[in-house]
Specification:
This protein has 3 helices and no strands. With 63 residues, the protein is mostly helical. It has a domain of 33 residues. InterPro entries: UBQ-conjugating_enzyme/RWD. This is Ubiquitin-conjugating enzyme E2 variant 2.
């Protein structure tokens, strides 16, 4: 994923396997940022992912 002029922050592990996210694994040029973000939100809000522990407040990842 390449984002230009990104002013936000990704929270999570520093390396992500794009093939593990269905919308990225089945990428089509017609997908908009909105489609990708909606699918990521749906995955984050799934019951399986809601049970995962969150990292401690202020924790950072170094590459």
């Amino acid at each position: 994923i390449i984002l230009t002029r990104w002013t936000g922050m990704f929270i999570g592990p520093p390396r992500m396997d794009a093939w593990s996210i269905p919308v990225l694994a089945k990428w089509q040029n017609s997908y908009s940022n909105k489609v990708i973000l909606q699918e990521l939100r749906r995955l984050i809000m799934s019951k399986e992912n809601m049970k995962l522990l969150q990292p401690p407040e202020g924790q950072t990842y170094n590459n």
